[in-house]
Design a protein that fits this description.
Blueprint lengths: L1 E5 L2 E4 L4 E8 L7 E7 L6 E7 L4 E3 L7 E2 L2 E2 L4 E6 L8 E8 L8 E2 L3 E6 L1
């Protein structure tokens, strides 16, 4: 499985940004897609995940501000980020799982999101 993410960039605090992630390769085993992020000096954290049944989990820090639409047919995941804060500044990684809560089967290359204050 390969994941190609895009859409990062610089945005002012309070602004919005959308990320997208396209899966390719041996995709039949993907049962969930989502996003992690890692800010400088911090551990990587799970931001959002959606399984093939539509069940979604968000990190508390992004609830109410981020959504994770997903096009299962096209094996594409998105991360719509609203009301961005400087604390959201991080490298965002698209992620795919065969089994939720297990080790991911694929990671995207990472896309940088910078939120200025």
């Amino acid at each position: 499985v390969q994941l190609q993410a895009s859409g990062g960039g610089l945005v002012e605090s309070g602004g919005s940004l959308n990320l997208s992630c396209q899966a390719s390769g041996t995709i039949y085993g993907i049962n969930a897609m989502g996003w992690h992020r890692q800010a400088p000096g911090r551990e990587r954290e799970l931001v959002a995940i959606m399984n093939n049944g539509g069940r979604i989990n968000y990190a508390d820090s992004v609830k109410g501000r981020f959504t994770i639409p997903r096009d299962k047919a096209k094996m594409t995941a998105f991360l719509q980020m609203n009301s961005l804060k400087p604390d959201d500044t991080a490298v965002y990684y698209c992620t795919a799982w065969r089994v939720i809560n297990s080790t991911p089967i694929a990671w995207g290359q990472g896309t940088l999101v910078t939120v200025s204050s």
